[in-house]
Amino acid sequence: MKLLVCNVGSTSLKFKLFEMPEERVYCRAYVERVGSADSAIFTYKNESTGKGFTLEGQSVPDYKTGIRQFLEAMLSDGDVPVNRIEQLEAVGFKTVLSKGYPGVHELTEDVIQGMRDYLYIAPVHNSAYLAAVEQFKELLPETPLIGVFETAFHTTIPPERSIYSVPYEWYERYGVRRLAYHGASHEYISEQSALYGKNDRVISCHLGGSCSLCAIENGKSVDSSFGFSLQTGVLHANRCGDIDPYIVPFLLSEGMPLGEVMAGLSKNGGLLGISGVSGDLRLVLEAANNGNERASLAVSAFVTSVVRYIGMFYAELGGLDMLVFTGGIGEHSDEIRKRVCESVKHFGIELDEKKNAVVSEGVVSTEASGVKVLVIPANEELGIARKSYRFLIG
Question: Is 187 helix (H, G, I), strand (E, B) or coil?
């Protein structure tokens, strides 16, 4: 079965074309900085031949453009056994949230309506996936589209950690509780970390445009930095993370329009909001290293937000076997890993700075470290492919 996985991020698009159940990858692509008129980056690679290319300075104003750019590259690649889009037998999506539909589901109109119903909770991600699904429905009206929703892995979080201290009726009537996200990524880390030794107690740090930490005990999620919405937890590229809820009514009372408040929380906050430079950590770090004080503050605030959750989860787990970094920042920023580990070295963490500077996958702590520190590249797409295929074959 030729199964395409489309992974839609808050500012990115990832694609992998699989042959299932063999799990062979024919090609992959990555679109960075979706929403940009002139600075998007498109990378395509054929896994069989190793051939590929990267185009910088691209105009990718929306997800539809990014999807079409990938499809054009794939269909024109003579070494991929797909030269007509109709040859795709299924498309799997790393969907986020649908009212009443956790787990894996075909994206029927009812499921899609559930995603629309929860747009207010996940405005950036659900709107992005709705746009992507709409595009594929238009291109492949007869092909099954499968959604693997991100909340499924976190259903094992104990109720005392998922309940909010609000009237219990809000939970009963509206479902207000910690839902948590990035399930595909954290579940993959829970599986892959076992290859490196004892992993009874793991803290998975998915750091990228969207960030979250997950406490994993014996392979199950027991807490998450994400809450009811994706606006919570660690500060993100352009989303606020944890803030005092009374900031919102205060700003409204000061005369700020609700739309402006919401944009500040979901589009103009995070690294972008503090630094004033960008939501891209690479550019913020560059500005900080050139003496930009707000950029330096943004980096420090980001590290601090990660460290806070590591400390919380360390206490809840009663110790730690592994600290794992994944996601765009987690995998590629040795500086962030170094600063985070330095802040929690009292947990017995000892980073090997030489390994940390060069290792792209594997252990980056010393042999004497009481906690193993790992870099594990995100492979959410493989998890989506496996679950989509299992769903399709029943």
Answer: helix
